[in-house]
Amino acid sequence: MDTNDYLKKVLSSQTLADDGDEIQALQKHRADVEALLRNQFSKCSPTIRYSGSSVKGTMIKESYDLDIICYFPHDDTAAGETLEDIYNNVERALKTKYLVERKTSALRLKTDNSGTDAFLYQAGSDKKRLKTNIDVHIAHVRDGGLTDAIKLVKLWKLRNGITLKHFVLELLVIDLLKNRKRSSLSNQLEHVWTEFRDHADSLSVQDPANPEGNDLSPALDAARSILQAVARQTLSLIESSGWEAVFGAVEDKSADQTTAALRRIAAGVSVQSRPWCPDES
Amino acid sequence: MKPWHVRDPHTYALDIAEVEAKYPLLHASIRNDVSRIAGTLPIREGTAEVDHFLVEINLPVGYPNELPIVREIGGRIPHALDRHVIPSSGECCVLLPDQRWELWPRGSSLLAYIDGPLRNYFLGQALVERGDPWPFGEWAHGLQAKLDYYNGLLGTDNQQAILQYLRALEAKQVEGHWECPCLSGRRLRDCHFTLVRDLRGKIPQEDARHALRRFAADLKLLNDRAQAK
């Protein structure tokens, strides 16, 4: 199997079937969250849409989540007077059923009059109000002709524990590969990692929906050194051990074979240990 | 207190290099004074990877006296006490801290922790996910686990007796004329002297001190709750 066939197999192993258990569970969660929001904010009729990797075509099995955008009408204050109020009210509503973690701008809020432009409330940031356009983001990634490379770089990021927003990584890959769309997948990936290794300090990204107003450099700055170190090691691993050292083997093992192998490993463990949990009540 | 990578940069560098050499998809980084090792932890049979988990291992400021803080970051394991993950924080409860001296003695490397209790934990998670029981069993939650553990170790689950035993284990020395920690009223030399002496030879005083502090705090919490009711 040549490298590009191998990479296609990796991609295939990371694809979630439309009728699979994972997608069905995701759709059920989606419906539950949407119903909760509609119920809690019935007075202001929010518009609820889906975003993230599922609509961009970059979802991978290794790790996926649910991105829901909840737009609140500009001229209605039933959800809150200010962006911060809305952010907090949505958090409160979701907390009735879920454990909620406050993210910098996890709750997308309040439309203006320009169609799909929206303002995000940025918790914990000096600049609380940020203009962006989700449709522009989605189209930029989905229609860029690089979703396979993006998925593999995303998988690489996850497998190597790199902390960097997927969105920023997607923009980086699109920018670095804008003149290499016809290259093979392996060439594309090696080019991205070579750029990370050799030019980590000068990498830059722009929000396609707000190039001047949304400064993404802090997110990238925090990851430059780890991107560089992991890219260096990845290129070296490919040279010394081949691509399987990066993405693993893609042999088709049955669930029974895997379980049997796990049981054999357990049977050979000499120092056994048991998990515990403190009392949280 | 300064973090471990500042207090002992030489050992830190050696330990991290050892981990990264064996697990090339685990990478260390330092942010805000916290050392973080993150990436893929494979479960291997020989050299073949059978399964893997995406993990994050944070070394707290008190490491290596304190245990690493581990989270599964691939979203694969539910945050539930029954899966031995603390729901509010996502922390994995890899081992019973009182059992550390047996499983990952002080002075052991980070790699020994990853290859030992941590590998066992994720091996167990992989099997439980497939419908198997925990391969080496599981502890009950909270204080009950400690009572079960000390019952196996000391032959009693009496809370006051366990406290007395832990005091005897953390003491600089014990005397034969002391009252036996088992609460029999007899002298130690006429009762459980051999057990105490043997355990003192195995459990470092530092571990006994930590265990005593945690156990006393658990009992206080229990009493406070009982009084509140």
Description of the molecule:
- The complex is a heterodimer of chains A (281) and B (229).
- Helices cover 48% and strands 9% of the residues of chain A.
- Chain A has 281 residues and is mainly alpha-helical.
- In chain A, the strands form 2 sheets. In chain A, strands 3-4-5 form a 3-stranded antiparallel sheet. A two-stranded antiparallel sheet of chain A has the order 1-2.
- The longest helix of chain A has 20 residues, at 21-40.
- Residues 106-115 of chain A have low confidence and may be disordered.
- Chain B is of the alpha+beta class.
- Chain B has 2 domains: 4-129, Ubiquitin Conjugating Enzyme (Roll); 143-228.
- Chain B contains 8 helices and 4 strands, in the order H-H-E-E-E-E-H-H-H-H-H-H.
- In chain B, strands 1-2-3-4 form a 4-stranded antiparallel sheet.
- Chain B is globular.
- At the A-B interface, helix 10 and helix 12 of A face strand 1, strand 2, strand 3, helix 4 and helix 5 of B.
- Please outline the major beta sheet of chain A: 3 strands, antiparallel
Total number of distinct structural domains of chain B = 2
Strand order of the largest sheet of chain B: 1-2-3-4
Helix-strand topology string of chain A? HHEHEHEEEHHHHHHHH
In CATH, what is the class of the largest domain in chain B? Alpha Beta
Helix content percent band of chain B: 40-55%
Radius of gyration of chain A: 22 Å
Which key phrases capture this entry?
heterodimer, A: 281 residues, mainly alpha, three-stranded antiparallel β-sheet, two-stranded antiparallel sheet, 12 helices, 5 strands, 9% strand, globular, B: 229 residues, alpha+beta, Ubiquitin Conjugating Enzyme, 2 domains, four-stranded antiparallel β-sheet, 8 helices, 4 strands
Task: Indicate the topology.
The complex is a heterodimer of chains A (281) and B (229).
Chain A: H1 3-13, H2 21-40, E1 47-51, H3 53-56, E2 67-71, H4 83-95, E3 108-111, E4 117-121, E5 129-133, H5 134-142, H6 147-159, H7 166-176, H8 185-199, H9 217-221, H10 224-241, H11 244-247, H12 255-267
Antiparallel strand pairs in A: 1-2, 3-4, 4-5
Helix pairs in contact in A: 6-7, 6-8, 8-10
Chain B: H1 4-7, H2 9-22, E1 26-31, E2 34-45, E3 48-59, E4 69-72, H3 100-103, H4 110-129, H5 142-154, H6 159-170, H7 193-202, H8 205-228
Antiparallel strand pairs in B: 1-2, 2-3, 3-4
